[in-house]
Amino acid sequence: MTTDSATPPAPGPGSALALIDDALARPFPAGEESEDNGVRSSGPGHHLLILRASRDFWDDRSLETVEPAEQEIEEEFSLLASALSERWGEPETVELWPYLEEDGPTPEPVSQLSNLAGSMQVWRLPDRGGRWLGLAVGQADPEFPIWLLAAVGEDSVLPG
């Protein structure tokens, strides 16, 4: 997932909720088909969205630069998680690091998420066709932006 061809939305839970609602309503691509517009990637059984991105840290990885960016993304995460919990109740925490240790292939979007974040908050949405919604904060490498991520996937991908 890249951010070259599109820009994540402006801050605020309202715009993020609109993107999430769109992803929940959007069908998954069929077969081996996949899409990536830089802010949303989709494939069989999943959508992954960058809801918010900090600046990158290629030129400056000092604490004075990184900490405010982390705090801003974490605050947005908390606001959005609260709004989602009002809709669907308290989420469960799913640890993502164990997926990195699995021998076989990990299904998407969990494979991408496990390379970006250590855990995610998950709401299971049986009224949405057996889908789940995940919310995480992740970063590909220390030089890259910090991302607020949302994922929509099929229930069969997650244990429990």
Automatic annotation (TrEMBL):
It comes from the Bacteria. Residues 23-45 are annotated as: Disordered. This is Uncharacterized protein.
